[in-house]
Fold this protein.
Amino acid sequence: LRAGRSTIHEPGLDEILQSTIADGTLSFTTETAEAVAEADATFIAVGTPSLETGAYDFQYVEAAAHEIGRALRRPKRHIVVLKSTVTPDIYTRVQTILAGETEGSGAQVEVVSNPEFLAEGTAIRDFSQPHRIIVGAVSAAARQFMEGLYRPFTKREPGVLQLTDPKSAIVTKLAANSFLACRVGLINELARYCDAVSADIEHVRAGLASDPRIGHLFLYPGPGYGGSCFGKDLRALRESAREHGADLSLVPAIEESNLRHKLYMPRRIERQLEPLAGRTLAVWGIAFKARTDDIRESPAVDAIEYLLERGARIRAHDPEAGRRAAQHFGSRITLCGNKYDAVDGAAALVIMTEWDTYKSPDYHELHERLSGRIIFDARNILDVLEVRQAGLTYVGMGRGCAT
Ligand SMILES: NC(=O)c1ccc[n+]([C@@H]2O[C@H](COP(=O)([O-])OP(=O)(O)OC[C@H]3O[C@@H](n4cnc5c(N)ncnc54)[C@H](O)[C@@H]3O)[C@@H](O)[C@H]2O)c1
């Protein structure tokens, strides 16, 4: 990081790292005390993975709160901003930890909730041109501080920053992710229905999207949602609701529906090509979505695991996620640096991630190299007619009677 190189693939991030390091605005240390002692505020943005129960594992947030508290043992005002996605109880827990660590020192520490809404792949735009910044703070001083901090991003549209209480801010984040996951889950179920009754989900989507109450965003059928957020946030919301006696049935259903949907495409491939044992399949895309190298909970990973279990051989390509895929799969799959090499001699091509480079392939080359002449397009990114004109069979997601 000190050399200005990001450890993740995020478009534009290296450039920002390099310029802010060069102008002295940004520096890195592994010593918490060094980072915190002279600061006015500390952001906690550590991971909140799932426990086996589905609840968040708060050990990293708690450890960070202890470290920060130990660094603040002197009479000084300080704000601790919870950026990690959490459930409301952790707000109180972090307050208690900080109070315990700074007891008797004269430190005045306030915890503020400021959930993060950026999406991987568009993180920089999402952060610098935000639709909303949610700040949950109690004291006027903390609210004023947060408003000042974000002013460069809110100058033109002051309404972007919304002030609320800490727990409502926390729930807003969980609400946003469950809402979005619900849209994805519903369009995916409708895609399966379209397959069953020979309708075309792409036409249905266009009709749906032109209703202003529905709109077009987050309405694309695909292989199921993945990534490090939707799944774990929905599971944590479910568990938190259960602990507090709130009876939710839709939230757990979204997650169950998505888990089922993730196996929909691999099962179709199996039905079409069985037996899979000994067959070679090409997979384009391993990241959970385009413009990131993140493969956490990626539907492509689940699909590949399913196909491997049935004895298929996988030749895969991803423009950015190759290193992470190699760590996950080891020698169980063959990773190819060139997308057409992955297709060589394969019984089928399976497209799992909507990378631009897959959207208009050289069909002549595919026809030459893809032995099985069939494409499973889990993202509906190819033009059905073009695929057919190239002499290849097309299987999309919910495109039962695609025209
Ligand atoms: N990834 C996203 O797109 C996204 C979007 C919105 C919100 N969030 C939330 O942000 C949080 C972080 O997500 P992520 O995807 O970046 O997770 P991550 O696991 O990729 O990164 C967390 C980082 O925190 C570091 N860390 C852990 N304990 C630490 C400590 N005590 N001191 C210093 N560093 C420590 C880890 O080394 C790791 O680099 C989660 O709560 C997540 O839900 C993530």
Observations:
- The mean pLDDT is 96.
